[in-house]
């Protein structure tokens, strides 16, 4: 048993330890915020000059300064391609550091999925046409609205659909389906592409992870698309999962809450 004085010392020590813990946690959080800001600032500063350089390349490739020799054209095209890759990386990076759960939660509202899918498809038509991949959208008329932040949810769909096109075979098919489910609304993006090896499935949502398959490696990518999608879906309180069969294709499924309906966390999650 402690004397009152000893007890006081023990309590004081406990309080002091707690104060130090809190202080170091606050410091850690501050450090993380500074790092995030730094990444955002640097990438932001890089983006404008790189975009300008890209435009100069485009103008040169259009032949504005006179006809290019074949070698010059090839070199410019290669430089342009590398620059484009770098810009994609920077944009993904910025996305990754900008996604804040609080912002998404604040912007949640009833969203018409059909309109959101249409928006997402806008940037992907060219890639689909180039590979002769057909994109079919099958949404039931009476689908409830989803509870989402429209801008970031469109990005989830666009990342999933663009992967489904990119990692598909020539003349393949992508189907975007949705249905009401106990947890809210389930949205599935199915492709007839390469599929993903079971050993790789645990890693594909990690930042910067790219598939080992040589066909995947031969295509441009940053390894951030699924990490971004996962982060956004989680901020919605939803879940994102995948089923895949090597050589046959993959299905990525997103489950989010319906507006005014069940909450995903009470349902299939
Ligand atoms: P990136 O597409 O830039 O490589 P992602 O984060 O979008 O980055 O995807 C990570 C990896 O997951 C890809 O490199 C690929 O191996 C695999 N992957 C994603 N979507 C598909 C898909 N629909 N079919 C096959 N593999 C896929």
Draw up the topology in text.
Layout: H1 4-61, H2 70-98, H3 101-107, E1 109-111, H4 113-122, H5 125-131, E2 134-138, E3 146-148, H6 150-166, E4 173-181, E5 184-191, H7 214-217, H8 225-235, E6 239-245, E7 249-256
Parallel strand pairs: 2-4
Antiparallel strand pairs: 1-3, 4-5, 5-7, 6-7
The structure holds adenosine-5'-diphosphate.
What structural keywords apply?
269 residues, alpha+beta, five-stranded mixed beta sheet, two-stranded antiparallel ribbon, 7 strands, globular, binds adenosine-5'-diphosphate, histidine kinase, phosphoprotein, kinase, transferase, cell membrane
What molecules are bound to this protein? adenosine-5'-diphosphate
Shape: globular
The arrangement of helices and strands along the chain is HHHEHHEEHEEHHEE
Q: The biggest beta sheet, please?
A: 5 strands, mixed
Mean pLDDT: 91
How many separate helices?
8
- Distance between the terminal alpha carbons, to the nearest Å? 50 Å
- State the total count of DSSP E strands: 7
Quickly give the structural class.
alpha+beta
How helical, in percent, are the residues?
Answer: 40-55%
Which segments are poorly predicted (pLDDT under 50) over 5 or more consecutive residues?
Answer: none
**Major sheet: order of its strands?**
2-4-5-7-6
User: Hey, roughly how much beta strand do the residues contain?
Assistant: 15-25%
Radius of gyration: 24 Å
GO cellular component, one term: plasma membrane
Subcellular location: Cell membrane
EC number: 2.7.13.3
Domain Histidine kinase: 41-260
